[in-house]
Design goal:
Elements: H1 2-17, H2 21-35, E1 59-65, E2 68-75, E3 83-88, H3 96-109, E4 113-117, H4 128-137, H5 140-154, E5 159-165, H6 167-179, E6 183-189, H7 197-200, E7 206-211, H8 219-231, E8 236-241, H9 257-274
Helix pairs in contact: 1-2, 2-4, 5-6
Length: 281
């Protein structure tokens, strides 16, 4: 009951103050950590999650980001292309599950470069406490340095789509803003939306995927996001499912198979249309 009340409290604070996403996640982390020390999440990260016989075909790369290097996982296209999909991990970090999802994404999209960006500078969480610690270490300044470095790595001629889940969903939106005219599509799964209309006035088309039973990113927050995007006359496609937070993660007890499959198909169709100029099916 305390857990539910604290989540609702965060939701009320977000509605009242209209916080931006990075600050919102820090606030959520602080409330969660100080009042839910015994809470165990539905899913505990396991870096060996993909089947043992699943071959990861990407490679680790490093690029300059601020005063130190940043890490990412690159799945290079079969043929040379300037099309990139930036993938942002959940609060557990860039584990093998995220690499597996990125590889699945590339297989269904076709000839694109998929760059999975590590916002935790190599750290991978295995418990809720370590996930919270790494999330708090991933400051707004550092995350923006990493994303800026990734944009420079892709190059000035790169055309970019962004995608992420939860924490990564929020950073997918912010990365799309940072990419400017290079951004062609943004997909955010149940991430905290940006509430500053000025920052959204030139954003690329956005696909938002949300759960109606999410107590963090509530329907009211999604409604407000839609209103802001309408005010700035930017494209926002929203799909809402009767599901809870993190429903697309098959290793979470909130996993909703039908919603996950539908959302994934919408994601592939959206990126193909906006980034690859391929007809949507």
């Amino acid at each position: 009951m305390v857990h539910i009340c604290n989540i609702l409290l965060v939701g009320m604070i977000l509605n009242l103050l209209q916080l931006n996403s990075s600050y919102a996640f820090n606030l959520y982390a602080n409330v969660w950590q100080t009042t839910n020390s015994n809470f165990q999440p539905a899913f505990v990260s396991d870096d060996s999650i993909p089947p043992n016989n699943y071959v990861l075909t990407g490679k680790d790369i490093y690029f300059k980001a601020g005063h130190k290097k940043a890490h990412a996982y690159l799945l290079k296209a079969g043929k040379k292309t300037n099309k990139y999909v930036f993938v942002f991990h959940e609060w557990w970090g860039l584990n093998n599950y995220i690499k597996h999802e990125a590889q699945h994404l590339q297989a269904d999209l076709g000839n694109v470069n998929v760059l999975v960006i590590d916002l935790y500078d190599g750290h991978i969480a295995t418990t809720a406490d370590s996930a919270l610690a790494y999330m708090r270490l991933a400051t707004d300044k550092r995350c923006r340095q990493i994303i800026d470095g990734a944009i420079k790595y892709a190059g000035k001629r790169a055309e970019i789509a962004t995608l992420g889940w939860g924490l990564g969903g929020s950073w997918s939106l912010h990365a799309a803003i940072m990419c400017g005219v290079q951004a062609k599509a943004c997909v955010m799964y149940y991430g905290m939306p940006e509430s500053n209309a000025v920052k959204l006035k030139n954003i690329c088309p956005v696909l938002g995927i949300f759960g109606n039973d999410d107590t963090r990113i509530t329907p009211k927050i999604v409604d407000r996001f839609q209103t802001i995007m309408q005010q700035v006359n930017q494209t926002l496609v929203v799909y809402r499912y009767d599901a809870k937070a993190d429903f697309a993660n098959p290793y979470n007890t909130n996993h909703h198979v039908e919603a996950t499959n539908q959302a994934y198909n919408q994601t592939i169709s959206f990126i193909k249309k906006m980034l690859l100029q391929m007809p949507a099916h």
